[in-house]
Amino acid sequence: FGIASNESFVITTTNRKEITEDNFSELVQDGVTLYLLQSVDQMLLLATKERIDFLPHYDTLVKSGMYEYYASEGQNPLPFALAELIDNSLSATSRNTGIRSIQIKLLFDDSQGKPAVAVIDNGSGMTSKQLNNWAVYRLSKFTRQGDFESDHSGYVRPLPVPRSLNSDISYFGVGGKQAVFFVGQSARMISKPAASQDVHELVLSKEDF
Fold first, then answer.
1. Which residues contact 53 (CB under 8 A, 6 or more apart)?
2. Is 12 helix (H, G, I), strand (E, B) or coil?
3. How many folded domains does the chain comprise?
4. 132/184 same-domain check
5. Is the pTM of this model over 0.90?
6. CA distance 84 to 208
7. Tens digit of pLDDT for each residue in 169-182?
8. How many CB atoms neighbour CB 15 within 10 A?
9. Angle (deg, nearest 10), helices 78-92 and 175-183
10. CA distance linking residue 35 with residue 12, whole number of Å
């Protein structure tokens, strides 16, 4: 890598966990992206890309008629789709100690690109690995325990309050992605973990698929 013998460096995951002899086998797995830095908290000069590979679960197809079912019962399916998107924000802000802010914006300015629905919250944010987990169909929030780089212990079942308030809507882990592609052609998730300086961005595009 062209590193002089008198220079020090560290190798970290995209979640800024330093690779050591003790955690090497745990953190370094096939396909993982690593950073070679002068220090763990070094600012990145350029955006980096990380490829995500996954196979959709069969329930993606089996349950894909969900919104058609709602429509056939005489209900407008759009509120159900928006509820799934808001559900992500409810989950992200459930442990906020201060103000819990969730905004929904409908963007129709052609100069800013195609029309879009933006859901913005001040939640805890997601690491690159957690964004990866969100992208995987049928990986429900109750089984997202394999996050070996996360500082979070995984999903905690919310308090027994109405489902519309406790982020328990998307039980099967399919709703959020299905809602996105019911409303539009692509999803862009931008997230900054509360304890990190890095901003992570995930794009799921029908065109790319």
1. 31
2. strand
3. 2
4. yes
5. no
6. 23
7. 444 444 677 777 77
8. 21
9. 130
10. 5
